[in-house]
Amino acid sequence: MAASTLSEVARLAGVSLATASRVLNGSSRKPAEEIAERVREAADKLGYIPNAQAQALAKSSSGLIGLIVHDIADPYFAAIARGVQDAARQQNRMVLLASTSGAPLDEKEAVAAFAARRADSIVIAGSRSVRPGDKDGNAQLAAELDRYCRNGGQVGVVGHPVAGSSVTEGYHVVEVPNQELAASLALELAGTHHGDFLVVAGPEGLLTSDDRVRGFQGGLKKAGRPEAEVIRTGFNRDGGYDAGPGLAARIKASAERLCIFAVNDVMAIGITASLRSEGVWIPRDATIAGFDDIETLRDFRPALSTVYLPLEEIGRLAAGAAEGGSVSGSVKLRRSTEVPADNPA
Question: N or C: which end of the chain has fewer CB within 10 A?
Answer without folding.
Answer: N
